[in-house]
Amino acid sequence: MVAIFVVLTILLFLGIDLVYQRVQRKKAEAAELQPVYAHKGAIDRILVPEGLFFHPGHTWATVTEAGLAKVGIDDFVRKLFGTIDSIEFKKTSGEVKQGEPLFVIKQGNRTFEMVAPVDGVIEATNSKIADDPSILRVDTYQNGWLAAIKPTNLKKNIEKLNIADSAKEWAREEVARLRDFFAGASFENRLVGQTLQDGGPPVEGVLNYMSDEAAKKFEDAFLKK
Known about the structure:
The chain is an alpha+beta fold. It is 39% helix and 21% strand. It has a single domain, classed as CATH 2.40.50.100. A hairpin with a 4-residue loop joins strand 3 (53-54) and strand 4.
């Protein structure tokens, strides 16, 4: 009986250890899917998390423990877009270069190209966001990643990206530049245009109120850098 009890005890501990290892493995796998960043800071209502690298074309990148660069759009353009009808990827596999169009945001009959923040090979795209872009309205920087890229030239790419204090200063400059842009832009809603030109905060979804010509100029001035 004693021998049977010992064997059962050993089997019990082995079973517990197996379950524990399985749980830990699942936690590790889940962690790899999440970009790691510190607390959020607001720049004129624009969120600029620390620990993320921001491209001048308003996309961001963060490197996971698995060595992949998760990328997405920043809160600046997310707020300006407001409602996004759909997101289409220019590529779902293969190589991409920093500054090349990576995906297209569709809003009504308008399209806006967004660029890759780093060089690399596309390993995956986030089908959840492609199916439901509204997720970006509540989670731009974590579950709102759009593509996972295996970096091939990260050290050089980082020289053209902003992080930490430089990212916050860049965001302030972009908000100021946006106000200057509003001064010369044409709006389908005059009240919205007047509010922005008078120094009011950027209105969520303001691109919806811009004329087609102004929206195109915005894309050229802010997204294709």
